Amino acid sequence: MMNSIRTRMAPSPTGEIHVGSMATLLKNYAFAKKYGGQFILRIEDTDKEREVAGGVKAIQEIIRRYGLDWDEGPGKDGPYGPYIQSERLEIYQKEVQSLIEKGEAYYCFCSKERLAEVKEQQLASKQPPHYDRHCRHLDPEEAKQRVASGESYVIRLKVPEGEEITFTDLLRGEITFHSDLIDDQVLLKSDGYPTYHLAVVIDDHLMKITHIMRGEEWISSTPKHVLLYKAFGWEVPVFAHIPVFLNPDGKGKMSKRKGVVSAASFLDRGYLPEAMLNFFMILGWAKKDQEEVISLEEYIREFEPSDLSSNSVAFDLQKLNWLNGVYIRKLSLEELQKKIESFVPADFPREKLAQVLPLIQERLVTLGDFTELTKFFYAPISYEANLLLKKSSVEGVREQLEQVIALIKSIKNWSVEALEVGIRNLQEKKDWHKGQFFMMLRIAATGEKATPPLFETMEVLGQDLLLDRLHQALDKIKS
Ligand code: GLU
């Protein structure tokens, strides 16, 4: 059994992949890998109205950007393809016929107008809207004739009356729904397309999926699926419904506002895929004594769905930021340079990149911080003159600046050592207050209170720019 583990992710190309979906995908991936099984990507594109252009390609791209891949799916044929539902319409149409034959499903000819009327009446009498089963008792022969004569129809599931539907969720144990609360679902739409419920069950069965790990928002669909498995006479796979992420403040479901929570948006902002995956691993993982920094290989070894918490957890941005920093600091300078390339603004002086990176590597929370942390290396700076003065006198600071300018001008071999030795000697000789003097100098050189180490920073600025900045400071305190 364990060699034939098959998991899947079945996204719809209706928008960007949410970080929560990527976290769920990782679990399906890891579980399949752990047991030498297969992870399948299936595209559920039966809702053509909600489909966005380029959606299928975007799904494939984002999975690969996260460094993951599928064993079977679009572009990777396998024995159970095609893996795009819109290419499988005949399969659904054929399979659903078997339900009609067995009396587990029925043709429904109700018009939109009739359904709207029924709904209105139900709402008026404070009933939850549901199909009133008008066509459920039509004579099957008569129904077939109406279909043959070209009448428009849908196919509905004949939900059994008065039954309990129970399934086991790996995180929650047994879950029971009463069949009387389940509508006679549409399985096949009038345009010949299957609904999600029909397609998902047929595909999971035909693709031999053993474990379905998906977002907990699908729990209420699961009894419908279980009914379908039973109606077909198929074995029910194992379910695990993964809790959704809450907002970073722990309040409410992490909202779907476009771009902000998409899996792509985090990479676009300079979170490393490795850090994101690590974050997904530890969020809601109830395994005790587990290190927080964990590689994909370790995770694959350790992962068990039953170790997942069934409670929703907050998308702890602080932890993510910390992890991202950990992963950024692990990079060699060459790797960092490669990864940060797309975040370097066009006007940044390229020749300084290799020098600047070691200075900011420690301070990057995301790669996207590059611009903010390095602006002063090349762009004009501005700051309030009183930052230079603090408690010192204008005269005092002016003397300091003039002396440093003279010193900088005199340096022949431009280097950190020359800067450091010269400036430190000067400070000692003059007995200037150390804290005040170096803070003043940092502000004058960069316009910022917090920067990478001062002498290294000055070296990268270069003699000319540094002198300009010191003169700018002098002008500021004079005026
Ligand atoms: N197509 C569904 C989605 O977009 C799949 C749900 C499931 O995994 O069954 O999430």
Short description:
The protein contains 20 helices and 11 strands. The chain has helices at residues 19-34, 55-65, 89-102, 112-124, 140-148, 196-206, 222-232, 263-268, 273-282, 296-302, 317-330, 333-340, 353-360, 370-374, 386-389, 394-410, 416-430, 434-446, 454-461, 463-478, and strands at residues 6-9, 38-41, 105-108, 154-157, 164-169, 173-178, 186-188, 211-215, 238-242, 245-246, 313-314.
How would you describe the overall organization of this protein?
The chain has 479 residues and is mainly alpha-helical. Among the domains are: 88-242, HUPs (Rossmann fold, 3-Layer(aba) Sandwich); 385-478, Orthogonal Bundle (Arc Repressor Mutant, subunit A). It has helices spanning 19-34, 55-65, 89-102, 112-124, 140-148, 196-206, 222-232, 263-268, 273-282, 296-302, 317-330, 333-340, 353-360, 370-374, 386-389, 394-410, 416-430, 434-446, 454-461, 463-478; strands spanning 6-9, 38-41, 105-108, 154-157, 164-169, 173-178, 186-188, 211-215, 238-242, 245-246, 313-314. The chain is elongated and about 105 Å long. The relative contact order is 0.09. The model has no long low-confidence stretch (mean pLDDT 95). Glutamic acid is lined by residues 10-12, 44, 200, 214, 218.
